[in-house]
Amino acid sequence: xxxxxxxxxxxxxxxxxxxxxxxxxxxxxxxxxxxxxxxxxxxxxxxxxxxxxxxxxxxxxxxxxxxxxxxxxxxxxxxxxxxxxxxxxxxxxxxxxxxxxxxxxxxxxxxxxxxxxxxxxxxxxxxxxxxxxxxxxxxxxxxxxxxxxxxxxxxxxxxxxxxxxxxxxxxxxxxxxxxxxxxxxxxxxxxxxxxxxxxxxxxxxxxxxxxxxxxxxxxxxxxxxxxxxxxxxxxxxxxxxxxxxxxxxxxxxxxxxxxxxxxxxxxxxxxxxxxxxxxxxxxxxxxxxxxxxxxxxxxxxxxxxxxxxxxxxxxxxxxxxxxxxxxxxxxxxxxxxxxxxxxxxxxxxxxxxxxxxxxxxxxxxxxxxxxxxxxxxxxxxxxxxxxxxxxxxxxxxxxxxxxxxxxxxxxxxxxxxxxxxxxxxxxxxxxxxxxxxxxxxxxxxxxxxxxxxxxxx
Length: 457
Hints:
The chain is of the alpha/beta class. The chain is built from 14 helices and 15 strands. The N terminus is likely disordered. The strands form three sheets. It has a five-stranded parallel beta sheet with strand order 2-1-3-4-5, with helices on both faces. The protein has three domains: about 180 residues, Rossmann fold (3-Layer(aba) Sandwich), CATH 3.40.50; about 100 residues, PAS domain (Beta-Lactamase, 2-Layer Sandwich), CATH 3.30.450.20; about 150 residues, Alpha-Beta Plaits (2-Layer Sandwich), CATH 3.30.70.270.
């Protein structure tokens, strides 16, 4: 049994003595002096086994003078391997030496008849040393466990250090790759601080703007924004601060040679490791060529390729807007519809290519006669043309239609004339179909009147 650290009161003593009188006197002394739990046996045979002895703190065992059987048993069980103190009770003389007795692993011995003051001293000393031994063993165990933990942690630390070295190399490789990718990107990539100053920019800026990286670093980004867009960009950067991201903001940069560069900006917030806002990553993509192509496609979708006038699709979209504007601003709006007299016969006689040249000349004539940026001449379909005249009433439209006819006569296209119909928006209805139908009916009135006439609906 392992002795507790608080006191000796938990000590358990085993007394083995074949002499009833001696056994009784020792038992009485131990119980009176210490009050420990006490087990008393008359023979050594049934208890001298490690698993049985380990339940005691202290064992008094009789060693008879006639034999050393007890000594043999002590040697056999190897007392150094169990936590129990054995003190033989020796009857003199004994057949083995005291040296042999001590070598068997016993703690001490007591000569019978027992000197009880001596027994008391040896009991207290034995238990005290057992207690100190137990404390020392606990500390040793603690130190061994600590050493084992340190070794394990050291191994784990070495393994983790090796992993971190690998991770660091991977990260360095990735950073180098990202840096190379950033530097060779086809888009302009800015790092901007919280005040709008440029902290870094990749080398494509030199190709697109003419500025070197050194000329740009440290300057406010507004220095390179077209003046019409400076407040727009400043508001966008504030939005990044509040929302964290902006997407597809179109703006204009000024180059070193004062040319313009159309760009599309996407931006995200930058934060430090504490989560504090420190600036913005901005990616600017050159969209100059894209915008040019978009404009070309737009023109292709709204321009008649033969006459270079706006087509019917554009006319319908624009007429609706002009009606709404005239209604809101309360000004007159007129339509002129033109149909070519004798065009089908001319086309049949001279062929389609000649007919196409006639249509192209009508387009040229209308562009010359219309107010630039105000009147909207369109090819309505086939040999029909229609013109939107904002801020023009039907009477002024009549004069304009007569001017068209005079200009057309100068083209000397034989018998091909212009039947013209005029209608004016009434200022109330927003039905564009009624307005077109009125111009169409007036145009047919001109045809029924012999052609090459002007009629008002």
